Amino acid sequence: MKKFLVIAALLLSVGALGSAARAQSAPNLAGTYWVSGTNPDGKGSYKGIATLVKSGDTYRIHWEVGTTYDGIGKLNDKTFTVEWGTATENVGTVTYILQPNGSLKGTWSVAKDPGHLGTETLTPKK
């Protein structure tokens, strides 16, 4: 019985260490980013600044790209998915992939027209 308890305690310790290592290895996206994007169907491009603020396991994001947008998102491994919109309209989704250099490259759509995708890159402001 003692052997079983020692083995169980060892396994729990190793599991806890593995969980702590995974939690520590998750990148923190909080910060200010340069924004560069294209509108769907080749209808122009835009630039601006975005700010990400970590709140628990989610992020609040605020874009200033000629129009102000706000969103909330969650990082899952290297995929950062955000629901965004303005105070009165333009609700949509953007899905970014975290790049090795810390930038986020993504595609976005407006909820009322999800078949037309824009692109957007967030580059950490240094």
Structure description:
19% of the residues lie in helices and 54% in strands. It has an 8-stranded antiparallel β-barrel with strand order 1-2-3-4-5-6-7-8. The longest helix is centred in the first third of the chain and has 24 residues, at 2-25. The chain is globular and about 35 Å long. The chain is an alpha+beta fold. The protein has a single domain (28-124), classed as Lipocalin (Beta Barrel), CATH 2.40.128. The chain has one helix at residues 2-25; strands at residues 31-38, 45-55, 58-64, 68-76, 79-85, 92-98, 104-110, 113-124. The chain has 1 helix and 8 strands, in the order H-E-E-E-E-E-E-E-E. A hairpin with a 2-residue loop joins strand 7 (104-110) and strand 8 (113-124).
Topology (elements, then pairings):
Elements: H1 2-25, E1 31-38, E2 45-55, E3 58-64, E4 68-76, E5 79-85, E6 92-98, E7 104-110, E8 113-124
Antiparallel strand pairs: 1-2, 1-8, 2-3, 3-4, 4-5, 5-6, 6-7, 7-8
